[in-house]
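Thread title: Can someone regenerate the structure for this chain?

I was given the following input by a collaborator and told the matching structure tokens would be attached. They weren't. Posting the sequence so someone can regenerate them.
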Amino acid sequence: MRRAACGASRPFSSDRDDMPIPVKILYEAVTALNRSIFLMASLLMFVIVPVMLFAVVSRYVFNSPSSWAMELATLVFGPYFLLAGPHLLHERGHVSLDLVQHAVGPKVRRILEIINYPIIIAFCVILLFYAVPFARQALEYGETSYSSWNPPIWPIKLFVPLALVLLGLQATVEWLRLIFDPCALTEDHPDHGIAS
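Best answer:
Regenerated them for you:
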């Protein structure tokens, strides 16, 4: 059975008749994985905010700056930022050329997106080529920050290749969705609110 025409009259459904079943399963699995990782990473804010508050209060109220608080907040923010990226790509929360997207019709917008995702995937592959040795070296040497507190930073550097793999996977499934779902950018549903 073929789908109805694109538009608000046909709400989003995960039962896309046009998508092959393996693509549909892959899309839903990668998106669910990245959503779960994002939700877990967002819990890091419960560490970052109190540490930043402690740093500000100790410095400005007690005139006794800590040697570790700002560095810890920065180190914890790194994985939060990196692991949020793939889910943000799915939610279309990254900076984009909205003026161009809203100035063109749905067909041109779709073509631009079909071109955009392979560029993102290539970007991830190139960065991954450099990030894996970078993370491996940090792990092998037990790299630290060399500050007065001197915490290990190699665990943080391991998040870079992980985030690139997750971002590349999300870009791949979003690209496949665009290829197999002709209404991907025009339907009005909660995940992708770009309506024509």
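The radius of gyration is 21 Å.
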